Structure formats: C-alpha cells, structure tokens
Amino acid sequence: MRKDRAGYLFLLPWFIGMLFTIVPFFASLYLAFTDYNLLNAPVWIGFENFADMFRDPVLLKSLQVTFVYTFVSVPLSLAAALGVAMLLNRGIRGLPWYRAVFYLPSLLGASVAVVLLWRYVFGFDGIVNAFLGWFGIEAISWTSDPDYALTTLIILHIWTFGSPMVIFLAGLRQIPVMYYEAAAVDGASKWRRFRSITLPLLSPIIFFNLIQSLIASFQTFTQGFVMNNGGGGPANSTLFYNLYLYQQGFNQFNMGYASAMAWTLLVIIAVFTAITFFTAKYWVNYDS
Amino acid sequence: MPPTPCPREGTASVTSERPPGSGSELNRRNLMKLSGLGLAAVPGLAACGRGFGGGGDDESGDGVTLNMVWWGDATRAEKTQAALDIFMEANPDITIEVEYQDSGPYQDKLATRFAANDAPDLMAMRMDSLREYADRGALLDLSGYGDDIDLSGLSENAANLAEVDGAVFGVPAGLNAVGFVIRKDFAEQYGVAVPDGDTWSWDDLAAFAQAVSDASGKEVYGTGFDVQTLQNLVVWVRQQGEDLFTEDGRLGVSAATMEAWFDLVGGMRETGAYPPAGFFEEIGGSADQSYIAQGKLASQIIPTNNFLGYNEACSGNLALLRIPGETQAVRRGQSVDCPHLWSVAATSKHPKEAVRLLDFLTNDPEASLATGTTRGVPASAAVAEEIKDSLEPDDLTATEYLMGLQAEDLPRSYTYPPGGSAIADFLDVIAVEVEFGRQTPADGAAQFIADATAAIEG
Predict the structure, then answer these.
(1) A229 to chain B nearest CA, in Å?
(2) What gap in Å lies between CA B260 and CA B199, rounded to an integer?
(3) CB distance from A251 to chain B under 8 Å?
(4) How many domains does chain A have?
C-alpha cells in the first residue's frame, strides 16, 4: 500500500494535467452540438454543425489540402528518415554528432522561425530560385503562387525527418549483424538484404513511425499559419484543416462549428489509424 | 483568415490598420510578441493572486482598476501610456492596466476574453467586428452616458462611424483615410511627372506607372496597390455609385464593378505597369520592409496615419495624393474611416469610469497631444485643430489631407454588417485566383458576390 502511494504520487502531475484536458475535451463535445458564438450562451442545435460541414466548400478545400499534405509528405519523410538512418548506421565516426545535426531540423520544423526562414529560402530572390537559375529554370513564386505554396511546406516537412530517423536508427542497431553476414555468405545482393532482412525486422518500427507521423500530419497548424500570416493563403492553398478550425472558432465566432470540426478530425484520424492497424498484420513482422 | 484572413503585406501595409479581418503583419517584432504571448499571461496570473489574497482593491472602495486593451507597436504604447498617465494623475482613484499586442493575436484574445466572462473595460474595436460584438449585446451603448462623455464635438464623419441604428457602441480612436503615395525621386529619375493628386484619373495612374516601369526596365514597377484590401476596393466601388455595404446591411456592389476592379489591375499587370503575379510575397509588413521603401515600387496605397512612417522609410521622398478618379467618377469614392473604435464592455464593472476615460481620450486636447496621430486625426474637430501646430511635418501633411476630405461633401459610408468580417477572406482568395489566371475576372466577380452575400445573410 505504501509502495502504491509513491506510484500515485509520481502520477499526480499527470492527473492534474489531465484535468486541464478532460474538461475542455467534454466541453467541446457538448459545444459541437450547439450554436455558440463565444459571446452568448450556447444553443443546442443537434447535428446541424455536422450537416453544415458537408455544404462548406472551404472546409472541403481544407480537407483536400490536409490529405494531400499528409499522403505526400508522410511517406516521403519516412523514406528520407530511413535512408539517412541507414547511412548513419554504417559505423561512421562521430555518429552522435551527425545524429544531432540531422535531428535538429525536426526540433525546429514546426517553429515560427524556421517556417519564416523557409519563406526566405523559397522567396522570389531566395537561394532555391538562384539554384534553379543555374539550370536555366525561370524563377518561381514558391510562396505566393497557389500552385506551389503547399509544395514548399511539403518539402519543409520532409526535411524535418529527425525524430523518425532517430527511432529508425535505434531499430537498425537492434538487428543482429549475423543475419547480414549469413545473407552475404549466401550471395544476397544489398537490395535483397534490405528487402528480406532490414524491412521485415524493422517493420514494427516503421509501423510506429507511420502512425505517429500520420497523426501529427493531420493536425498540422503552425506551418500554414505562419506561411500566410494566419490566412492559409495564397488562395487557401495552405489552409490546413486545423487552421480553418481555428479561423472558424476565433475569427468568425463559430465556436460550435469549430468544435464539431475538431471532433470530426478526431474521427478521421481514428479511421486512418484503424486502417493502418488493420493492414499491420499483412506487413508488420513481430516474430522476433 | 488572419488573419483570417489576409491581404498581402507587400502593398498591404495598408492593411496594418485594416479593419478587415486578416492576419497580422509578419515581422521580427511581431514574432517576438507571438513568442511573448506566454509571458503576457503572467500579469494576469499575478492579478489572480491578489484576488485570492483577500479582496481586490475594488471592494475596498478606495480605487478602481480599469483594464484597457488595444493593438499596436511599442511607439504607440509609449504615446498611449503618456496620455493615460495624465488621466491617472487627474484621477488618482483610477488605475489603468494596459495590455497591447499585435492585431492578429489581439482579435483572437479579445474573443476569448469575452467568452471567459473576463472582458476588458475599454478596448480597441475593429470596424468590421463592431457589429459582431454589438449585435450580441457585448458592448455598452454610450448614448446612455451623456453625463460622462460628450459626443457633440465629434466631426460628422466620426459620429457616423460610431452609430449603429441610433445606438453608439464605440468612438473612433482617430480618423484616417487611404491615400496614394508616390516616390518623387523615382519620378524625377525616370523623367516622369508626378500627376496632380487632386484631379488625376485612373488612366493617369496607368500612364504614370507604365512610364516608370518602361523607363526603369521594370527595375521599379510604376504602381502596386492591393487588390484584396477592402479599403482600396471601397473607394473604387463608391466611385461607381455603389456601396460595398448598404444602409440596411446588405452587399451593395455589383458583379460588373468587381470585374472592372479586377480588370483595372489585370490590365496594368499585362502591360508591366503593375508587377507580375506572385511578385508580392508578404514578407514583412512594416513601412521599412514595404516594397516602396525597398525601391521596387514607385507608388502604392497606404492608410494616411502611416504616412510619417512610410515617408521616413523612403527618406522623405513621398508625395501624398488622393486616390485617382475622384473628379471623373460618378461620385466621390474616398471616405473618412478610422483605424479602430474605442468600445466599453457591457459587462464592465466600472462603466462610468471607463466612459470617463474614453471622454478624456476623445475630448481632451492634452490626451491627443500625448498620443499624436498614431491612431489618426482626433475624432473631435476642435481637438484636431488644436493639436495641429504641434505635429511633425509628415503627420501634419496627413492631417491636412484628412481635414481636407472632411471639409468636402462625401457620400456617407455604412459599417460592416454582421458576417462582414468574412468578406475580406473571400476577396483574398478570389483575388489570388484571378491574379494567377486560375479564374477569369468575370468568374471571380460572380463568385465574390455569391460568397459575400451568403456570408452576410448567414
């Protein structure tokens, strides 16, 4: 009993923090079924907010932006993370240093400063256009052209592959070297070794990283907010779902609608996570 | 979409005072503030601490604490504080706690504070938000406080801005208008005459801009004002004999007028008088970072109360002109606006004191001497006249520009109806679609009318 008490004591901060989460959590569930403008008391309207969502072209646009962003940038950033992790796993000298350097962008990626920096890098007179200029490619308005603005943010996301990379690296180090040695003796090519040893043995880690990245990516906010001064522009091309939710709640005084959007996002994320879990049995290998 | 909504900063510093709902300007200073948001909460916490400590000063009866919030920068903060100090000295029983921040986060925070039943006593209110708050009973009707505030001295324009259906939910913190600024040094360098600012037409603007762009080999574009800034659009719409918002709170602009607005800029863009699509990248919003100060544009539209800042950033080379077309159009397009109103919360525990402070800011020349014209020309005509002599030359130029407009017979303009703040967002999106040719001006105009009508009619 005394022992338990120490345990609960250590859990206490979590319980206290949980209070701050659980109250708004259920409050927003209630608000999702109300017309609430922040100034007057909420009025119960049933499922009207949810019905309105289907008729809101801007919401559909924000869903599209979020889906494109997620389904393009998550696989690419995981591939980049795995690639760099494998490079770093070759027993090079100064590994901790390289690991830190490659991890750094993901510490900064969602920060305001880096998104801003990104805007300068991709600015009309920025280094990307200067680089493309050497190959005779005309300057592109990366940040102000609605056809390119999201691409710029996807590239930013791919660049911030640090946290999955560190996890991949840890996973790679768990794979016994003897498998590779045995395969090499049998004459397996590098590609064959990667496909038949690395990928299967790493699949639980890939699975974990995939889920983590999917969830984080669906909730993207900062990049779109900073990119266009909170606007999601140009022409809503970087209007992430969460950014639109924020606009509805805090700029347009539609807090009920924003709450409904939040719960819908929860369902969307749950569905995609469930799909990933469902497919896991076909490709995730746990027998080791 | 600070947002909401939001026009592009390059030309759009115009929007720094913008009523319409858009984002804040993005620059280093604002970012510091953004990161300082957490810190901003600390005084609030401290206040709670006092409360728990057994009775705030309110109950003790020997003093009143007013909470006053507004947006702006450090310069404005300094000037505002100077005025408040004068008030507090004269009213030792009143303490004023001030909070200020950038316009984007300000808007969000204000809404949250109302939601949390923690509304400030006196607050800066955006024109496009006024009815969002007032129609929901959140603001005090000042017309019932005739003993504490004298509104008779307001100029006619100022009084009109403040009034909604006979009630007064705010007093203009100052008056401004939009004006066209031209770099005189570029005009001279490229051998182009600066047009007569009182009588020039839109054709004159196009000719001037074309000449500058041609002579400079597009090193400097002749003009680059913001298509999606409502204040700019409003002048154009009024010149066509229409109102963006009508007296009964509807959308008054026609599709043809919108299309002509897009065509006006589209035509100049095609010939090179106006920069190509994608040129404005919204980096930086201050006068220093503006395209005209960087020497990439020879002219643009600004709010007149920012003239001092812009002219300093351009080394004193700016001329302040009226918006083109005023003498050729069906009717006058320019109007007298305000950067923001001062409003009092309906739930304020000290409405009388808050209203008295508002009276001081509005009617006491001492207050305006301290604040200068950072929020525009004083709303009281007598006060404006009184402080004129103490203004810096650039502020005087802007003030005389505005007083000139005030003296003329301008058609009345009507404030944003509820839902009107979303319109800036729609225009921002459509203007970009048209800019990049993803939508024809005609389609963009039709869509704007449809979106805006839907937003206003709920």
Answers:
(1) 5
(2) 21
(3) yes
(4) 1
Q: Which residue of A has its CA nearest to B21?
A: A251
Strand partners, B101: B71
Nearest to A230 among B24, B35, B114 (CB): B24
Q: Is A41 on the interface with B (CB under 8 A)?
A: no
Q: Closest CB to B1: pick one of A37, A123, A230.
A: A230
pTM recorded for the entire structure: 0.84
> Is A254 a domain residue?
yes
Specify the DSSP class assigned to residue A124.
T
Residue A173, domain CATH: 1.10.3720.10
A144 contact residues in B (CB cutoff 8 A): 8, 278-282, 432
β partners of residue B163: B168
Residue whose token pair is 């709010």? B303
DSSP per position, A177-217: HHHHHHHHHTT--HHHHIIIIIHHHHHHHHHHHHHHHHHHH
Does any domain span residue A167? yes
Task: Check CB contact under 8 Å for A233 and B6.
Answer: yes
Nearest in space to B232 (alpha carbons), one of B130, B136, B161, B303: B303
State which H helix or E strand residue B123 sits in: strand B122-125
Q: Is the ipTM of this complex over 0.85?
A: no
**Structural domains for chain B:** 26-39+55-101+119-175+339-407 (3.40.190.10), 178-334+419-458 (3.40.190.10)
What pLDDT band is residue A109 in, cutting at 50, 70 and 90?
A: low
pLDDT tens across A92-102, in order?
Answer: 788 888 888 88
pLDDT in tens, A163-172: 899 999 999 9
